[in-house]
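>> received
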Amino acid sequence: MTRARSASSAITTSSAVGAGTPGASTAPPRPRRRLATVALAVSITATLGLTGCSADPLAAQYKEGSDKGYIAGDGSVTTIPADERGEKISFSGVDESGETIDSADLAGQVTVVNFWYAGCAPCRAEAPQLQELNEKYEGKGASFVGVNVYDQAETATSFNKTYGITYPSILDVDSGSVKLAFTGSVPPKAVPTTIVLDKEGRVASRILGQLPAESILDTLVRETIAE
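>> returned
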């Protein structure tokens, strides 16, 4: 009985010290202090982690079960009537084979420009569709050009072999000059994005994100050629 009362007294004293009660003389056991400190640290870390996620769109995508590693578009399609289009877009760069691609050489035909990189899952998913359309319109009024925003030549070439891509891609990772030329048409980090330029080099339409369907881009290209 004496031991039971002593234990009860110790617990009461520990609570009093935790509450800051004056005159309490018995401190809580050290192991409990360590546990309390660890628990508090874990709580603070968790809170900071959640705060960071809420402010970071990549983290928000991760919490939703996504492991994209990039900010994707929503697949929305924008078309611009011919009489409302802006100035022509001029761009140039070196492709994965070391050849120079210049928009001036593409004048007079429709140009499909696709922004991508190898580690982008939607880019891999839409690659076969882009290649099919490239083959369909080759020599028939439209050319396809990729703009790789992240990779070097070796990675881009490997991607082309894997997915059977035959049209060239400008490597824009070092200079970012092509992306800059399309400022206003290509939101930062929205990959993939596909833009259709008319015969004068003006933006006629844009698909922000993965192609919703191959037929949509097919229609956009066909109608722009017919203008």
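>> Residues 2-55 form one domain.
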